[in-house]
Carrier domain-containing protein (uncultured Lysobacter sp), 40 residues
Amino acid sequence: GRLSRAVAVRVSIADIFTHPTVGELAALIEDRLSTTAVSS
């Protein structure tokens, strides 16, 4: 949805329930962005 388009990272509903705070979601997104950058 919007979040995935905004940050170019896929965030599932399960991720939102597993990481319910903005800070936790931000950390998840940063981790996925750094993983994506390394694997590219």
